[in-house]
Amino acid sequence: MCTALAVGKKRKPNRIMLAKDDRKGIETTELQVESFDAEAVNSKQNRVLYEARKKIHPKRATGWFRGLKWWIMAVTLGIYYLTPWLRWDRGPGAPDQAVLVDLANRRFYFFFIEIWPHEFFFVAGLLVMAGIGLFLVTSTLGRAWCGYTCPQTVWVDLYLVVERYFEGDRNARIKLDAAPWGMSKFAKRFFKHVVWLLIGFATGGAWIFYFADAPTLFAEFFTGQAAIVAYATVAVLTATTYVFGGFMREQVCTYMCPWPRIQAAMLDEHSLTVTYNDWRGEPRDRHAKRMRAAGENIGDCVDCNACVAVCPMGIDIRDGQQMECITCALCIDACDGVMSKLGLEKGLIAYATLEEYEANVQLASNVAPARSETDPAFDPSRIRGKDGRLITEVRATSWRSLVRPRTLLYLLIYGLIGMALLWSLAVRDTLKVNVLPDRNPVFTVLSNGAVRNGYEIKILNMTGRDRSFLLTTTGLPGATLKLSGSQSLEGRSLKIDVPADKLLANRIFVRVPKDRIARQETGFNFNILTIGEDDKVVAAARFEAPQDYGK
Amino acid sequence: MSEKEIDESSGIETTGHEWDGIKELNNPLPRWWLWTFYASILFSLGYIIYYPAIPLLEASTMGISGSTNRGELAVEMQAVESARQVTVQKLDATELEDISADAQLGRFAMAGGASLFKVHCSQCHGSGAAGSAGYPNLNDDDWLWGGDLAAIYTTIKHGVRNDVDEDTRDSLMPSFGADELLDPDEISNIVEYVLQLSGREFDAERVADGRALFADNCSSCHGADGKGIREFGAPNIADSIALYGAERAQLKTQIYRPKHGVMPSWNGRLTDAGIKQLAIYVHGLGGGEKAKAE
Predict the structure, then answer these.
(1) Which residues in chain B touch residue A255, judged by CB atoms under 8 angstroms apart?
(2) SS3 for A107?
(3) Is residue B83 part of a domain?
(4) pLDDT in tens, A225-239
(5) Prior bond of B184 cis (ω within 30°)
(6) Rounded distance, CA B123 to CA B120, Å?
(7) Around B31, how many Cα atoms within 13 Å sit in the side-chain half-sphere?
(8) Chain A residue closest to B286 (CA)?
(9) Cα distance from N-terminal residue to C-terminal residue, chain A
(10) R_g of chain A computed on alpha carbons
């Protein structure tokens, strides 16, 4: 049995003034505000054991937040689709793609940064930052990730644009759904799905370009020469984009995604959430003007359902804070438009913290000392002055709610990790050496009594040019070096060439004559100097000899 | 749960579970979720029919695909084998000394040799080829039968004191004590001389006699200077390495009744390319010698 946590407080709308019969058949109120026949999909009467998805037809919203969301959509989708095509010259032999995850060669390129596998801690650091960033954003702006930047939200928005283009806005779509199949309906549906599939295809297609040279792979992909995994990836991502963006939509957020539940646990009374300010909205009535004229004490909400009609999650924000709400703020835009038409202050639905909301509730509640939990009775006259405007005691959300010890601490940690990563990126080496001593055998006694130890020395040339290195030892008198398996001469030093951007593993034999061995175990250093450059690494190692040596 | 509890604010039945005052609502399951569940069951049925799945007493149901992990492994091994064929043929065609000149072929030989060594040789010579008493250390520069590529190749191919292979390396040291060729005191004197030769502590009084006895009894095989003669597999006894130990008692035992190591002949058990790979690996362990100019 599926369950959902009861999150926040769901408050029953106050409908004292509303006669049941008045609700149906009214298209507009006398105030020229359009009214919608919309109902929350999760309302009480819609509950059954196994529930089919109720199709949601979000109406197009206009307003400040909708504008912001268009911009965010353009920027995030632009970044996603175009990034693989950016070029960045790294010289000959290196890929010229600005952002590339080169799994085959184990490199990650990001503009001027090149990450080797052993530097994966940068990625770990970024993930830690993402985690802290989630704390920071959630504690200040609530579920801003869900509402503005989550790929699910952005792609559903994009799919809705397509749907609206072919089928029209909310009412037209509802009519089309109910209409019998015909040429016109078929054509509309057909082209909608074709464009949806093309978007899905482009989404999957863009993904694979991050893992290979984009222009090359593009040509290979359409001539059937790309790897089977490329086609499989595109197929899977096309399918998920099409299904999640076109059909599943809010189901993904409500039932599949763990994020809403995690984020719900991180909200506190200072977090911004999209809030219906029932302390000024209730009692709501469709005939507010007439009622007000009749001397009734009526709230600002005209029950036009505009907030429900635009909601991509299909909920009614006036039911209170709910898990389904992704805080996309489109209901704020919708309600602000209505309030403007009515000549009332914007913000009947607004971003507010629970703390401010509770203070305003106290202000508007006429039940002393505190409102009743289930059925608060609000008195709109308590929050409006003689001029009809909201009194100054009403608290509004300001930037001050963002600046709190908790958010500052998150910001500090976030910043410190970021600075630490940048610092380590700035000072990181272009030469790295690993020395692995042979374990079996630990040492070899030669016929003249000399002792030989073997080491695997890995030299990482993390620059774009071929370099030569001089390998010497200090702290091991009489030692001679030799490359294994080669006919190279044995000597006090070895010259090792490492190609650009490569790791070279060499087996090195170190030999010390019997009379120069002072102890069973001698600590010494390998020095690796770059010939012609001031780049040097000293690596500690041990030289092992038989027990009876040096006695 | 005897009594249904209805949540007041949402009007939904609760599950009756409660944590710190938070109760769980019994919301309806999305129907698509239910379909996903049924689809998973259908998939598992298909899986059971297609793949080996149900364990029986002796084996299991085979499924209509007939595919097993063992079968898949065989196919993959076959693919690896055939992918290697080109390089193996190249190994066959290339002279032993020339293999390492081709960097790619040299790496292939080293890697293949290392893997063959672990399977066929490490039982006696140890996984690091360091040997043990009676089993030569292949890392050092002391070779009984020669340390250049050709000599190592021959030793691996035909073995040592092998009773099947006619071309095997063969030699025998007399049992000087057991067959009463020398008396124990004489053997002790030779031991002191051998200790002197190899740079160890020795009894100066016995050395002169030992030197004379060595010249008469031992030098024909081990050489006048004790540095051994590889044609006979006679070890260099003037160096720091002693196969059966360099303690007095160990040397004495070895002269009184010598032990003789044997090694299998790998001719026919390994391919010629495999023996070449092993020779290159052993040669590359650090003690390999250059071929002597003829």
Answers:
(1) 30, 33
(2) strand
(3) yes
(4) 888 999 999 999 999
(5) no
(6) 7
(7) 8
(8) A484
(9) 78
(10) 34
pLDDT bracket for residue A373 (50, 70, 90): very low
Contact between A107 and A228 (Cβ < 8 Å): no
Range of the domain at B225: 184-256
Domain shared by A256 and A172, yes or no: yes
Residues A143 and A29 in one domain: no
Rounded to the nearest angstrom, the minimum Cα separation between B180 and chain A is 32
Assign residue B233 the CATH number of its domain: 1.10.760.10
Q: Could you count the other beta carbons within 10 Å of the beta carbon of residue B19?
A: 8
Q: What is the mean pLDDT of residues A456-474?
A: 91
Q: Across all residues in chain A, what is the average pLDDT?
A: 85
Q: Do A248 and B32 touch (CB under 8 A)?
A: yes
Beta carbons of B137 and A444 less than 8 Å apart: yes
Are both A223 and A318 inside the same structural domain?
no
B29-30 and B22-25 beta bridge pairing: unpaired
- Domain with A83 in it: 64-261
At position B49, the amino acid (one-letter code) is I
Instruction: Flag if A1 and B15 touch (Cβ within 8 Å).
Output: yes
The interface residues of chain A toward chain B in range 466-495, judged by CB-CB distance below 8 A, are 484-485, 487
The verdict on B137 touching A (C-beta cutoff 8 Å) is yes
Chain-chain contact of B31 with A449 (C-beta, under 8 angstroms): no
d(CA A318, nearest CA chain B) in Å: 13
Instruction: Choose among B233, B265, B279: nearest CA to B159.
Output: B265
User: Is the Cβ pair B240, A444 closer than 8 Å?
Assistant: no
Q: pLDDT tens digit string along B89-144?
A: 999 999 999 998 888 999 999 999 999 999 999 999 999 999 998 999 999 999 99
CB A176 within 8 A of CB A168: yes
Q: Are A83 and A98 in contact (CB under 8 A)?
A: yes
Does pLDDT of A339 surpass 60?
yes
Whether residue A14 is contained in a domain is answered as no
Q: How many residues does chain B have?
A: 294
Q: Are residues B7 and B139 in the same domain?
A: no
Give B23's contacts in chain A (Cβ within 8 Å). Answer: 6
| Helix-, strand-, coil-residue percentages of chain B, each rounded to 5 | 45, 10, 45
Contact status, residue A462 vs residue A548, Cβ threshold 8 Å: no
Q: Is residue B23 within 8 angstroms of chain A, CB to CB? A: yes
Give pLDDT tens digits for B228-255: 999 989 999 999 899 999 899 999 999 9
Q: Which of B40, B65, B90 is the last residue of a domain?
A: B65
Total tally of structural domains belonging to chain B = 3
Residue ranges, chain B, pLDDT below 70 = 1-3, 293-294
